Amino acid sequence: MALSSENELFNKYELGKLLGRGAFANVYHARDMASGQSVAIKVIHKSRLNNDANFMASVKREISIMSRLRHPHIVKLFEVLATRTKIYFILEFVKGGELFAKVAKGRFGESRSRKYFQQLISAVSYCHSRGIYHRDLKPENLLVDEIGDLKVSDFGLSALTDQVRADGLLHTLCGTPAYVAPEIIAKRGYDGAKIDVWSCGIILFVLTAGYLPFNDPNPMNMYRKIYKGEFRCPKWMSPGLKRFLSRLLDTNPDTRITIDEIKRDPWFRKSYKEIEVGEIEDFGVVEEKKSVDLNAFDIISFSSGLDLSGLFDDKYKALEDVERLMVEDSPEIIIEKVEEAVKTEGGGLKLRRKKDCGVEIEGHNGNFIMGVEVYRLTDRLVVVEVKRKVGDVNVFADLWKYKIRPVIFLQHPVLQVAGD
C-alpha cells in the first residue's frame, strides 16, 4: 500500500492543505474518499524515528494511548497507516482550531472559561482513570470544534502508569516551561496526575486573565516564581475563582487539589454535568480490561493487517525467531495446552510461568529458551506469539512447529498474522 496518486493515500484519503508543521511531523487536512468526512492526517517520516530513540518511544506511546481513548473531549485516532518511509495518524478533524488562538484575541468571561475548564477536567479525569497522564497540557494542545466544544490533543509526551518507578513517581523532565509544575523544576520525582492538575490551573488562569500567572522574559526568574508560587489574580476575578486557583496552583503537590476535589468545588460545579461512561461512543477498540489483553498499539497492528512493530523494532525480524498466530480459544486454555505439550515431550524441558498469560520454556542445560505469550484480541480471538530467545533455530523449529504447535491448534483453524 502506498500513495496511489499525488493526492491520494492508500486509495482511502484525499490529501488537502497543510494545517501545521512541526519538528517531527506535518499535519494535513484530508477527506475520507468513501464517506466524504474530513480528517486530519499527521505524517511522520520514519527516518526521523531512526535518528531519535526518544521520539521513537514517544510515537509508539502516542499510538498506544490515543487508540484506547474514546471521550467526547479528546481528539479521536481513527487508524494508523504506514509505508516504507512514513507513518500516518488518521485523526479527527477539529474545525475550530486551537484554543490558544481564541484566547489570544482577549480573555474570556468566567462562564465561558468554566465551560472549557469543565470539559478539560472531564477529559483529564478520564485519562487518569486509565493510567494515562498528558504532561503537556496547554492552550496550544486544546482544540475547539465547530459547536464550541473543547478537544484535548497531542499525547506525544504522555506517560503511562507502567512508566512509574519503584518510588511510585515519574522522573522524565518534560512539558512547556510556563506550564510545568514546581516539582518538575525541582527535578524531584512527580505524580503525573498532580502535574496535570497544575497545568489545568495555569490554563484556567490564562483563559480568565488573558495572560500567564508566572511570566518573565528571563527563564530563571520565571522558574523561581513558579517554584515559590508567586502570582496575583486580577481584580476582576470573583472570590470563588481566586480561591479555586489558589488550590490548583498550590506549590505543594501533597496539598494541591485533586480531580475529585475539583469536581466538588462550588465555582467548578456551577452548571456542570458529569459525562457518564455510557454516553461515550464505542469505536470498537478493545480496552485493557485484563492483563492478558492486547494493548491498543498491538490491536492497531493486527486489525489493520500491518504489523507496526516492525517499524520500530527489528529484534525479531527473522521468520525463524518469531511466529504470531491467531486462534479461537481463551489465553488460559492456550497456556494449559502448552504446559501439557511440554510435559508430554519431556526430554529435560523446564517450563516457567510468566506474569499474565505467558510461559518460558528452557531446554536441557539451557541450550535454548523460547517464550510463549498469549494476548486477547477480541472476545473470541487470541494472538499467540512465540519467540526464540536463545539457542539453535533448528531446535526451536523442531520443538515448536512439529510438537507443541500441532497440539495447541489441532482443533482450531489458525490464521497467520500479517508481518511475520
UniProtKB/TrEMBL annotation:
Reaction equations catalysed: L-threonyl-[protein] + ATP = O-phospho-L-threonyl-[protein] + ADP + H(+); L-seryl-[protein] + ATP = O-phospho-L-seryl-[protein] + ADP + H(+)
Positions contributing to ATP binding: 42
Pfam families (UniProt xref): NAF, Pkinase
Keywords, ordered alphabetically: ATP-binding, Kinase, Nucleotide-binding, Serine/threonine-protein kinase, Transferase
Gene3D superfamilies named among the record's database cross-references: Kinase associated domain 1, KA1, Phosphorylase Kinase, domain 1, Transferase(Phosphotransferase) domain 1
Domain NAF: 289-313
Residue ranges of every copy of the Protein kinase domain listed in the record: 13-268
Secreted is among the record's keywords: no
Zinc is among the record's keywords: no
UniProt xrefs under InterPro entries: Kinase-like_dom_sf, NAF/FISL_domain, NAF_dom, Prot_kinase_dom, Protein_kinase_ATP_BS, Ser/Thr_kinase_AS
EC number(s) on file: 2.7.11.1
SMART domains in the record: S_TKc
Known cofactor(s): Mn(2+)
UniProt similarity note: Belongs to the protein kinase superfamily. CAMK Ser/Thr protein kinase family. SNF1 subfamily.
The protein's name: non-specific serine/threonine protein kinase
Species of provenance: Rehmannia glutinosa (Chinese foxglove)
